[in-house]
Amino acid sequence: MLAVRRTDAVLVLVALVWGSSYLVAKSATDVLPVLAVLFARYALGALACGAVVLVRRRPWSRTEVRAGALLGVTQAAVLVLETYGVAHTSAAHAGLLISLTIVLTPPLDRTRPPLPGRFYAAALLCVVAVGLIGAGGEGGLGLPRGGDLLMLAAAVVRAGHVALVGRVTARHRVDPSHLTAVQMVAGTALVLPFTLPHLGALAASGPATGARLLYLALACGVFAFLAQTWAVQRTSASRASLLLGTEPVWAVATGLALGGEHLTPWAAAGAALMLAGTYWGQAVERAHRDEGPARDAYEAGKPLARSVPGP
Fold first, then answer.
1. Which of 290, 240, 284 has the alpha carbon at shortest distance from 124?
2. What's CA 292's distance to the chain center, in Å?
3. Which of 110, 217, 256, 311 could form a disulfide with 44 if both were Cys (CB 3.0 to 4.6 A apart)?
4. pLDDT of 180-236, one tens digit each?
């Protein structure tokens, strides 16, 4: 039981770190241009991932390099939209809107069976939530902010990126640390040409800004990746997805408690609908995904091996 609780705590910590990244990124973009923040996040992450790869000393494959380069492009698109988006909206809104990825990804993943109607009902609930969050400004209902629209675009692109990662890892045997390292290097190379005019501002940034950049690169990048990989190997996929799915809750909590933000009544209603819709959609997708192996095992007359929390 102690081992299970330790694993759960690590997964909640990963979700908390990811949720807090929106407020940290917003604070960094208040001081530095968005592209400078992105470059620092990528470059520091690439150095840290490179150190991890050197320590592990596992052989590379061409597939890891090719797939990592492609995923580096899609990941860069996600981070550009996310960072520009959070610079022009609240951290709470950003964390809630990006969680739309949860219900956008399964329909794009061709490796999974067709989804039932209940899933699309949950997705529709999330769409209503998006409307309330985006239009619930300070003066009541109105037009969504530009940052909210950018976060919606980031959610769409992120869903495509996650589906692409699933397709690559389903077809090829790849080392996740190699894949992540190549993505970081590719992102650094893509962002660098646009960051050159801002390198002076980046070099002149103070200790507080430097700490934020290190947090984004090391805590939200390398640590979260390694901790997630460690924890997922020791628990069930359902339990892991449930705990990691608390990311938007932490995004709202850090925005309200530490960022001095607040939600209007309309946006708060949208937040409640978004959390309900994403959890419902996640539960429907997970149950539907488990039905296939169960049905096949039943027809074959074999017992189904279920995943349980590891030691």
1. 284
2. 27
3. 217
4. 899 999 999 999 999 999 999 999 999 999 999 999 999 998 898 888 878 877 776
Evaluate if residue 299 carries a pLDDT over 50: no
The SS3 assignment for 89 reads: coil
What are 136's strand-pairing partners? 141
Q: At what angle do helices 34-56 and 207-214 cross, to 10 degrees?
A: 50
- Whole-model pTM above 0.85? no
- Sequence-distant (6+) residues with CB within 8 A of 67 are 168, 172, 174, 179, 182
Residues pairing with 269 in the sheet: none
Residue with tokens 């940052």: 147
| Nearest residue to 166 via CA among 11, 307, 289, 42 | 289
**What are the helix (H) ranges across 196-223?**
199-203, 207-214
Q: What is the pLDDT of residues 120-131, one digit of tens each?
A: 898 899 889 888
